[in-house]
Design goal:
The structure holds two protein chains of two kinds. Chain A is of the alpha+beta class. Chain A contains eight helices and 14 strands. Chain B is mainly beta. Chain B has a single domain (2-257), classed as Porin (Beta Barrel). Chain B is globular and about 55 Å long. The model of chain B is unreliable at 7-20 (pLDDT under 50). Classes of the chains: A alpha+beta, B mainly beta.
């Protein structure tokens, strides 16, 4: 007696193969739910975390996927899309050296590649973990696609990170508003701005929340405004529940009261023209902040920025954190640290001397911790 | 690796049962078997190559839609019977440099970064195919391909298209040669419907990213004596520059040709 006809074997094999394997396949580009769990990383060697007295040093840094100031096509008038391991590693080592020198206790990174063709599939995050003193990290993807058939981008996995000496719990990815000024197809393969959140408990102190945002850089509609509103509403919720937070990241927005708000000429690439009659668009995407200049005011009004607004407004250049132009000094401020608790007075540092490490300068400050009752 | 080996062995094991093959298979599903198209008959697909039967001993083929971008041509030769197997060989040449240089571009459609340009590449493929009838009406085929490329100069290893199905077929353009071992079984299901199940192993003669496997399954629906719809799936596993990866993709083709 034959239980299975030999003629049925091809169909049987096909059916079994599909059922067994289907769950392990990934789509061409990854869509995101409103809230998802983050991926937790751990250093290859765990180190004893220090016991702070009353405050910790925190830092935010957009590391530009460890290509330093190289001429990438997407943001620096460059021609290159793909960088070799030999090109990336020196920049990654520089980032590691800078972190080891500055020694923040908690680090929020933006634009961290973990498996992208453009950076030779180097896992920046694991390398940083294994070559610094951090023990734990939480990662969420911001731009994840199996293949992007545009400019040779190929496979992409870039995201945001919270690095900590202490364990990170309840870490989530919070999806932000989708850009409203892109076609559906482009948006499907494009990066999806998000916040990574987590909770950190340092022995002897109350648990606090960490929120790291990378807001849209190039949206020309009100998408960025929505991102700030979503960010603030999360902070408001924590605040209303009696918690305290460290929040920050690359907000891609100028502080209110900035003297210079239009960077079309600074960011202009050869062959481009803006502000002239007949130019369409009149402004370079992501370079004209004039209509958006008050969008961060609610954050400043509600919470404490590590660099207070009045101090920024008195000496703006000292707090610039970004420039698109390799070889030029920083020309605008886009990176921030906020809390609803307290900063150690005048503890903030905008590390402007790290000019060759990324197109953003890291910002640090000392966050006062709440003692446990 | 274990899964694919098991499937391969299973397919091989069922060849122990023999009987007469179905005309449906040899008439309409002879691509990738040791059977040739009869003289003056032709068949093509949107993706499948155009094949033209020259004689009982020879068939020529070329992927017509790709011709302007990837000049290609091949010949399939029948070598008669060896035991219970019908044996044929294929020999083909293609020049993928133009299409690679087209795909290396800025903006949408840029599968490869525009910073790369490709030298002259001549890809050479030789294969041996052996088919025999199995079960009541099925046809079992084994195929061994050997592919290598003559390159005008070295090609940057980061200029690959790191996608399943595509990456293993382009691997020998960059480094090493490619050996492809495959087996498939084709059988009619009902009067106008046939099914194919196959397995392919790609072994690239180099240190890294050197093994790939594909399990394919297709249904052939005979819409008329001149036209068939081929639909199915391609389940692939491979060692890519970013790591090991499984992928399931759908597959669709429309086959058309002379009345058979």
């Amino acid at each position: 007696m034959r239980f299975v006809s030999l003629r049925n074997i091809p169909r049987l094999l096909a059916g079994i193969s599909i059922l067994v394997i289907m769950s392990s396949c990934e789509p061409l580009a990854t869509g995101f739910d409103d809230t998802e769990d983050a991926t937790i990383y751990q250093a290859s060697t765990l180190r004893q975390a220090p016991q702070p007295d009353s405050a910790i040093k925190v830092m935010t840094w957009n590391i530009r996927f460890a290509i330093g100031r190289s001429p990438w096509f997407g943001d620096a008038c460059g021609d290159n899309t793909v960088f070799t391991k030999e090109e990336v590693m020196p920049h990654l080592d520089s980032i590691v050296d800078a972190i080891n020198m500055i020694r923040p206790d908690i680090l929020m990174l933006q634009e961290c590649d973990i498996a992208s063709q453009r950076t030779a599939y180097i896992n920046d995050l694991q390398y940083i973990l294994d070559n610094t003193y951090f023990n734990y990290a939480a990662y969420v993807p911001e731009w994840k696609a199996q293949f992007i058939a545009s400019d040779g981008l190929g496979r992409m996995d870039m995201g945001q990170v919270i690095l900590s000496r202490w364990p990170i719990t309840d870490s989530k990815r919070i999806n932000l508003a989708v850009r409203g000024d892109q076609s559906g197809l482009v948006n499907y393969f494009y990066l999806h701005s998000c916040i990574i959140s987590g909770k950190i408990k340092i022995p002897g102190f109350e648990e606090f929340s960490v929120l790291n945002i990378h807001a849209s850089a190039f949206a020309t509609d009100d998408t960025k405004k929505k991102h700030y509103e979503e960010f603030k509403s999360m902070l408001d919720r924590i605040n209303a529940e009696g918690g305290y937070f460290l929040a920050g990241g690359d907000l891609n927005e100028l502080p209110p009261g900035s003297d210079s708000t239009d960077f079309c000429f600074e960011d202009m690439c050869p062959g481009e023209s803006f502000h002239q009659p007949g130019d369409d668009p009149q402004h370079k995407d992501g370079s004209n902040y004039t209509p958006e200049i008050t969008w961060l005011q609610p954050l400043y009004d509600a919470y404490k920025c590590a660099v207070p607004l009045d101090r920024y407004q008195q000496n703006q250049e000292a707090y610039f954190t970004h420039t698109t132009r390799p070889g030029h000094f920083w020309d605008r401020t886009l990176d921030y640290l906020f809390t609803n608790h307290r900063w150690v007075k005048d503890s903030d540092v905008t590390h402007q001397y790290l000019l060759r490490y990324s197109d953003h300068a890291p910002v640090t400050a000392r966050l006062v911790l709440k003692k446990e009752n | 690796m274990k899964k694919t080996s098991l499937l391969f062995l299973l397919l091989a094991a069922i060849t122990s049962v023999t009987s007469a093959q179905s005309p449906f298979v040899t008439k309409y599903m002879s691509y990738n078997t040791a059977y040739l198209l009869p003289e003056k008959k032709w068949e093509s697909g949107i993706r499948q190559p155009l094949r033209i039967g020259l004689s009982q001993k020879a068939e020529i083929y070329s992927t017509v839609l790709a011709l302007p971008f990837t000049p290609n041509a091949g010949v399939k030769l029948a070598w008669g019977e060896l035991g219970s197997f019908r044996v044929a060989t294929t020999h083909s040449l293609s020049v993928p440099s133009p299409v690679l240089n087209i795909l290396s571009r800025k903006g949408i459609g840029g599968f490869i970064s525009p910073e790369y340009s490709f030298p002259f590449i001549l890809s050479i493929n030789n294969s041996v195919i052996a088919s025999r009838p199995v079960c009541d009406s099925a046809l079992m085929t084994f195929k061994a391909d050997f592919m290598f490329a003559i390159r005008g100069s070295d090609i940057d290893p980061q200029s690959t298209i790191d996608l399943p199905v595509i990456f293993p077929r382009m691997a020998h353009y960059y480094k090493g040669s490619s050996v492809r071992l495959s087996a498939n079984i084709k059988t009619p299901v009902i009067k106008k419907l046939g099914v194919e199940e196959g397995l392919q192993l790609f072994i690239i003669t180099r240190q890294d990213n050197n093994f790939f496997a594909e399990n394919t399954g297709y249904l052939y629906w005979k819409m008329s004596k001149k036209m068939l719809l081929k639909a199915g799936y391609n389940l692939s596993y491979g060692m890519y520059p970013f790591g090991n990866h499984w992928q399931l993709w759908p597959s669709l083709d429309l086959l058309f040709g002379s009345r058979r």
